[in-house]
Specification:
The chain is α+β, with helices and mostly antiparallel strands and 329 residues long. Helix content is 33%, strand content 23%.
Length: 329
């Protein structure tokens, strides 16, 4: 019986639902592990928001990626989660598992970039741990601060909510393809830009500022479709007008010229954009537009929440074969 129970393919969702959820003791701030971050119930009004992420060599970055890029990625994946919770980042811990390829020069470049990012986002290092490993692995736990009333839940969307996306999608994916030397045709003048978007992602901190107008939010780390599905949680559906999805004109051109190799769905199933998907009441539409212009954030209205579960295009045709990143696939 035990052998039969364990004879299935593991996934992040299965591990969380079947084994880890019993450990949260149903504490409110854990969101039952259905958020990318949680909060500590320290005082009545002010909460400590906590998130943690690990990036691993050959999975999240290439072995020859510059140390500055690795530093930027570990900061980005955590700060975007803090932002999606409507919190302001404060400090972090860092666990380093490194191998014999790492030397003083690598560590100086890595820590110099961390220092630069710490000053930019007003955070500091609390401490951490260092160990030896065959492959480089970094784990960062980030702490943010927010008032309870301002914390954004990932699962707090409402029927009729607008669906918004920040920034642009697809740049990191094309950078990844450029590094992989695929047969995709990208003009030389764009290659460096796309590679930089893959190497040096930037977290969108819109949630940390616009929390009062947002009902639910998530950062796009596992793909637009996959992360939107987490917001919907099988309870609601979404109608998405793919023509309104924010893509640079160069990305649209590359899609047209390489239609036999890559599709829009490939971009929408790819993570590492670290933009935000968020939902908001229609009555907040004008306020969000004015707020985003004032604080110089790009936001795009791409759809709305509906009652029927699933993700549909603007013709109400269900989008099939939705996928997202999973470390076990």
């Amino acid at each position: 019986m035990i052998e039969k129970f364990y004879n299935y393919k593991l996934s992040e969702k299965k591990i969380i639902n079947n084994f880890l959820k019993k450990l949260n003791f149903k504490k409110t701030g854990t969101f039952n592990f259905e958020n990318d971050a949680a909060y500590l119930n320290i005082s009545k009004n002010n909460k400590i928001v906590v998130t943690t992420d690990t990036i691993i060599e050959n999975i999240d970055f290439f072995p020859k990626d510059p140390p500055e890029s690795i530093a930027q990625k570990i900061i980005c994946v955590n700060l975007s989660d803090i932002s999606a919770m409507g919190a302001v980042p404060k400090a972090y811990t860092l666990n380093l598992s490194i191998n014999s390829k790492i030397n003083d020069v690598w560590l100086k470049k890595f820590t110099d970039r961390l220092s630069k990012l710490q000053k930019k986002y007003n955070i500091y290092l609390l401490g951490g741990d260092i160990s030896y490993s065959k492959e480089i692995s970094l784990t960062m736990t980030c702490f943010g601060e927010a008032k309870l009333k301002n914390i954004i839940s990932q699962k707090n969307c409402y029927l009729g909510d607008d669906v918004w996306v920040t920034g642009n999608l697809g740049n990191s994916y094309l950078g990844y393809l450029a590094f992989k030397n695929t047969k995709i045709n990208i003009e030389k003048k764009y290659i460096k830009s796309f590679k930089n978007k893959y190497l040096f992602p930037e977290p969108c901190m819109f949630g940390s500022k616009a929390y009062r107008y947002i009902n639910s939010a998530i950062d796009i780390s596992d793909g637009f479709y996959g992360d939107l599905s987490k917001i919907l949680n099988g309870k609601f559906g979404a109608s998405i007008d793919t023509k309104l999805l924010p893509l640079r004109s160069e990305v649209k051109k590359i899609l047209d010229e390489n239609s036999s190799i890559i599709k829009l769905n490939d971009i929408l199933s790819w993570g590492d954009d670290y933009e935000l998907i968020f939902t908001a009441f229609k009555k907040n539409r004008k306020k969000l537009i004015n707020f985003s212009k004032k604080h110089k954030f790009k936001i795009s209205l791409v759809g709305f929440i509906l009652k029927k579960p699933g993700i549909f295009n603007d013709s109400m045709k269900r989008i099939k074969n939705i996928s997202s990143f999973d470390h076990f696939f």
